[in-house]
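Hi team,

Below is the intake form for DAK2 domain-containing protein from Pseudonocardia alni subsp. carboxydivorans. Please confirm the fields before the structure is written into the shared record.

FORM ID: S-0412
PROTEIN: DAK2 domain-containing protein
ORGANISM: Pseudonocardia alni subsp. carboxydivorans
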Amino acid sequence: MASPFDPALLRRWIDAAAERLTAGRAEIDRINVFPVADHDTGSNLLLTARAAASAPLDGDSPAADAPAADPAAEDVRPVRAAAALAAAAVRGARGNSGLILSQLFRGLAEELEAAAARRPNTPAGELLAGALRRAAALAAVAVSAPRPGTALTVLDAAAAAVAARVAAGAATGPSSAGAELTRVADLPDPSGGTDPSGGTDPSGRADLDGAGLDTTGALAEAARVAADAARAALARATGRPPELVRAGVVDAGGLGLVVVLDALVAAAGGDPGPPPSSQVGTPGPASAVTADGELVPWVPQPVYEVTYWLPGPDPAALETLRARLAGLGDSVGLAGDGGGGVMVHVHTTEAGPAVEAGLAVGRPSGIRIEALPPAPPTRDRAVLLMIESSGAGALARAAGGNVLVADPDPTVDEVLAAIRATGAEHVVVLPCATHRRTVTETAAERVRFEGIDVVVIPASSVLQGLAALAVHDPARRAPDDVVAMAEAAAATRTGGLAVAEAEALTWAGPCRPGEILGISDGEVVLIAPDLAVGALWLAHRMLTPGGELVTVLLGSAAPDELGERFAEDLRRTHPEVDVVVHRGEQGDYPLVLGVE
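The structure came back. Fields below:
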């Protein structure tokens, strides 16, 4: 029995996929807001499909010239055609979505090769289940930071559904040739429900030896099961990335995969399901929460898409490359073609270093660098703080601020990306350190040419930044709000405790290693025997001019008891003052004080 994935079927599939992607390109582009709203996913998928369609699938290989009656030739032709399709797709992959699509074809090529060696005449459903299982695993490895609710979830669901259908067929015996198409809702679900993608093991460990789909039209039936499961997974509202929740749309790459699976149904002679909807839920406000109830974060968006081809890199070097690219940006993808070549993809603010990272592990070719369009404003105002520590950053986010992690200090490009990522027309930036003012002002000046109004308030510490954020009022006129925030920052006096590492002469006298230094306005103003005493002495000194609120940020090495003891002692000596203690988790100062 000839393989259902013969070169003619593969040609019909890729041609149908290109035709359907051409028809749906505009809509897929429109809903492309994740991971970056560059609105090109439909175009990237179409270009990848066209690259795959350029592969010689029949008539160009030695096996194609062998007599048709030769069983060995019949076994080899589908394997070689699928391998050619996969290689062309990987080499011509565009964008993250194109990388994932290329791995669908690679998964098929590897499954056909394995099946030919394992057992000739493998049933169509088993072949498709194995191909989808392999494709899902390959795509998950290719993408450095997999996210639920995206094309990877759609691919997992399709693989799980076909595996479950094959297992069900093995348990009940072959179906008749005229059997009615099995719907996804009818598939058994080990979790107790009816959705295969929710309860079936997506790794494909289900029994694939059944012959339940080995009938006339078996491939069309199996493909329809996969497409329907993918369509159902795409439409789920829960678990989607925040960017999709805000826009009220499905994942563009996932929508494209459903289109490609529908093309397989049609190529196999089946009837594809209804066109998948691109909308799910309703667009949310800028401060929306995900369907799971989590706060939507605002993530800095890189400004370049970099792709290149690496022929035959060392596998160990690829992991080094992946780590390097992850440090330069996001949407990192390394997709292999099964023959040793790898297509590399990254979104980054530093295109040059991204290419240099490839040069360090091989000889990249086909280098493409494209500027990503800035996202349109989605809200009126935002406040951006540069904060090193996780605890203080969490406080700022909880208060409605956007946070750029400043460890190490950000570059101009990183500040630019963070300002753009707020999605606001008016942005107040708080550098939270004196030495970061220059880079902040430079970035603000550049981004103003893009129509974003940026004001830098020269907050010199995290506590000054938090004080300014605390009085931010979006309902107030923008100029008045900036004045109020600047006044709050200026009115906050800050100090901290540090541990002396060597003998030194300070303004407060000589110190020895291990003694506690109280620092205010950049100078050592006291020396104390321990943290508890030093915190109280420093607070008394800072309260001398007056104050109503003392805020404490505990460092990563400071115990909670230090804050509790300090608050108790200060309330006893200064009952008129409110004391608030938070975990700042900063690594440089065991304790930081702010007086307002």
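SUMMARY LINE: Confidence is low (pLDDT under 50) at residues 59-71, 174-216, 285-301.

Thanks, M.
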